[in-house]
Design brief:
Helix content: 10-25%
Number of strands: 30
CATH architecture of the domain at 144-241 and 259-509: 6 Propeller
Distance between the termini: 66 Å
Radius of gyration: 27 Å
Strand content: 35-45%
Shape: globular
Length: about 525
């Protein structure tokens, strides 16, 4: 009897362990399918490509502890004086990073009162040099990047990160885990970031069209739910018919789809704009697309939400595209520069959205590129400059970095990026072949440029590059590669697989005490 009970207990324990193992495997498989596939390297390998073969460089030694300085009565008296002088103490605290200030709130009630004061936080957000779009951002080191994958028809995926510093791996992991599980019944379908604030679009499981807009500060863990935008009706013929004002247009004769006139409005993208050097408040730009069935015509519209008023305002300006599939405008990757929001399309024309007047500026200069058949590789802001990276010589892996003039007069070639040394590690970056006309051709292998970093003081640039199995930080001037993380593929179902080099939303993580 006891033996039978023991046997039953053992079998139940084994089955329980099997169920746990199966559940763990299923959750692991689900996690991998949703994008948890970046493993950061605790001891990153540094490789010099200045000579062949590549020679591994020694790791940077750990920082030595500074010798202790004996305290004197004079230094103690100075510390007491500063601690009791709120004005001096406040000026010192303005130089400290936000994460340190949040920890220092536990020092005393006085420090808690100073750091938690909204006036101090607004002043710190303006003073601390992390503002994108200004030259002050040069002094703020980039420690980590948020990354969000390309998705087919905005399929829900998981937010992830790339840490360029060992000290940021665990904090970033907790941060993205919290955001991925923000709603129990929802997942992220769109993502944007600006100066430390995140804008996330969640698709809830209970309804295909039910989305929640969230603005989140990952430094303070504060968030705000943005109300749903309810604009003009998409099926108003006077508002939506592209031929409404055409006196020579007769829909009965000219439009074979007249009896099937229908316009579908769908969500396109959500961008957040936050410039603490100008305002304590943020704005959210909502982009929608009207698809006119029965004609090759699409139209995009815009609405702006102001955190100061909590109200949506629909822009009277729209962008009509005919045909609708060409060119593709990347509204999901808006870049704040010069006080306005900018997008780039496949024709390498830039579109500027004036945030004050809430209208479009279409007369932007095109990129002066010779290889027009190649898509642009990077579009972003760094150290107060707006950059586009384009192909110069595809066979030699030579790229051009163009900078936009402040007055929007033209794009100027700033410097070249030579990625040829990377072929030592990845020969498949460029695949050469001969076409049917015996012409030498080439195509790029699976790699991508994720982020451009510049050190204005040392006049050096670095590029975060992604390959199918690794993320690397490439110091262009020194030809030194640092392996940052290992990467694995994501299975989207139906045989679709994606690697990190196909991810579209990459934004710098920046600390800020700004209120949302």
């Amino acid at each position: 009897m006891l033996s039978g009970e023991a046997g039953n207990a053992d079998s139940s324990a084994e089955s329980s362990q099997e169920e746990k193992a199966k559940s763990s495997a299923e959750s692991s498989q689900k996690a991998r399918s949703r994008g948890r596939f970046i493993r950061h390297l605790s001891r990153a390998r540094r490789i010099s490509l200045s000579s062949q073969p590549p020679v591994p460089l020694p790791l940077e030694p750990a920082s030595k502890l500074s010798p202790s300085i004996p305290e004197t009565q004079h230094s103690q008296a100075a510390a007491i004086f500063i601690a009791n002088n709120i004005d001096i103490l406040q000026q010192i605290l303005l130089y400290l990073p936000p994460k340190s200030l949040l920890r220092f709130q536990c020092v005393s009630k006085k420090w808690l009162s100073i750091i938690s004061d909204p006036a101090f936080r607004r002043l710190h957000s303006r003073f601390y040099p992390t503002t994108v779009g200004t030259s002050s951002s040069a002094s703020a080191a980039t420690e980590a990047l948020f990354v969000f994958p390309w998705t087919y028809k905005k399929t829900p995926q998981e937010l992830n990160f790339i840490s360029l510093s060992d000290g940021y791996v665990n904090p970033m992991a907790k941060m993205v885990s919290h955001l991925n599980n923000f709603f129990d019944n929802g997942a992220i379908v769109d993502f944007h970031s600006c100066n430390g604030l995140l804008a996330l679009v969640f698709k809830l499981d209970d309804c295909d069209d039910h989305r929640e807009f969230v603005v989140y500060n990952p430094t303070t863990c504060q968030h705000r739910l943005i109300p749903t935008f309810n604009g003009s009706k998409p099926n108003d013929p006077q508002l939506n018919d592209p031929h409404f004002n055409d006196p020579y247009y007769d829909p009965y004769f000219d439009d074979p789809h007249f009896y099937h006139f229908q316009i579908t409005r769908r969500f396109e993208a959500l961008n957040i704009v936050f410039d603490p050097s100008k305002s304590d408040h943020f704005k959210v730009v909502y982009i929608w697309r009207d698809e006119y069935h029965g004609d090759t015509w699409d139209r995009c519209g815009f609405a702006v939400y102001a955190s100061e008023t909590g109200i949506w305002r629909e822009s009277m300006d729209t962008l009509e595209m005919d045909p609708p599939d060409l060119p593709t405008t990347y509204f999901g990757n808006g870049v704040l520069w010069n006080g306005d929001l900018h997008w780039l399309n496949d024709f390498k024309y830039m579109i500027c959205f004036d945030l004050d007047k809430e209208c479009l500026h279409r007369d932007m200069p095109p990129l002066p590129v010779e290889f027009s058949e190649w898509e642009f590789w990077y579009f972003g802001e760094c150290n107060g400059c707006l950059y586009v990276i384009e192909v110069n010589n595809p066979f030699g892996l030579l790229f051009d970095v163009f900078e936009m003039e402040r007055d929007y007069s033209k794009w100027v070639l700033k410097y070249h990026i030579d990625l040829a040394p990377l072929r030592i590690l990845y020969p498949s970056m460029v695949v050469e072949f001969v076409d049917r006309a015996d012409r030498r051709q080439c195509t790029f292998g699976p790699f991508g440029m994720l982020f451009l970093l510049e050190d204005e003081k040392e006049k050096k640039a670095s590029l975060v590059t992604a390959f199918p199995d690794k993320v690397m930080l490439y110091k262009i001037n020194d030809a030194v590669v640092t392996e940052v993380a290992e990467v694995g593929p994501v299975d989207f179902g139906y045989g679709w697989k994606s690697h990190l080099n196909q991810w579209k939303d990459i934004y710098r993580h920046m600390e800020t005490l700004a209120y949302v």
